[in-house]
Design goal:
homodimer, mainly alpha, two-stranded antiparallel ribbon, 66% helix
Chain lengths: 197, 197
Amino acid sequence: MESERLEKQIQFIVEIDKLKQIYRQTYLMDGSRRENSVEHSWHLALMTVLLAEYSPSESLDLFRVLKMVLIHDLVEIDAGDTLCYDEKARRSQKSRELMAADRIFNLLPPDQAGKMRDLWDEFEASLTPEAGFARAIDRMQPVLHNYHTRGAAWRKHGVTRDQVVTRNHEIEKAAPELWDYIHALIERAVEKGYLLP
Amino acid sequence: MESERLEKQIQFIVEIDKLKQIYRQTYLMDGSRRENSVEHSWHLALMTVLLAEYSPSESLDLFRVLKMVLIHDLVEIDAGDTLCYDEKARRSQKSRELMAADRIFNLLPPDQAGKMRDLWDEFEASLTPEAGFARAIDRMQPVLHNYHTRGAAWRKHGVTRDQVVTRNHEIEKAAPELWDYIHALIERAVEKGYLLP
């Protein structure tokens, strides 16, 4: 194994440490602080393993889903976290994230850069059952966090029920039973005053 | 799918959020703060994917390694993080962690509790190539962090070269080339004054 290859891999491993400092809008379950994108990604990975049985796909490649959720936010190292209900920021999000993907994945040796980029592109394109399931889990996790913090991030940003339903409805196709659960949680959040009607 | 099952899964998913608040001795690569066990686990997962080629095992089940590194620290929710060079704390570590494993994994439905516990036991027993590789990556990551923070945690605790070599030598069997790299990094750390000779 040439050491130049390992040096590149280590350089990437050191670089991605920066994602630990990208804070999201979502709060930890106890409301004590916002969570960062690494914590979010780890949580998605465990949710993927535990909730895979709710995918209607009988041949879901869970290993690929896992890799997708682990890397899907790496572009935020350069592009930052974009609030999903901020329409203005979302217009420039795609181009910012594409530039970030070009830089960050290419720190790796070319073969691994290509594989990582393919996984990231697959997640973004959302055309495969694996991407669909990864995205459903990515949608679902912040709803759980919001519900258990009595709507901390929702209330801070004046988010409404319709916004949350529109954004999360994509869960239904990838995991109908998880959508039923999340949908009920959203309605309960409105009843409890965690979310604007 | 009975909803009692999903309720248990969600309860576990909410519970493990607490691992985001278990801080380790290791500092982020920029030295700004200590990292927590979730950040550490995510980093191991990506390192596992990227460095698997250094395992001499030709049939390494990477998916299982990934699951192991993602869950290996969950017991710290109850047992806390134990400094690896604190001999007194390490004596009670095993019994504290076993109690934690009994409580935490059993929040899940029995079939999933059993699978998670098997993965955790496998990591702890360190008898399979998968556990060996997961543990090698678990050893390697803090050395990278220490080196890139000019020995922040090593200097704080007065750790010596021999302690680090003894602890990390286990990497050699699971991934000889990674051990060569880490061994050289340890020697360079001594030369630079990051680590006591």
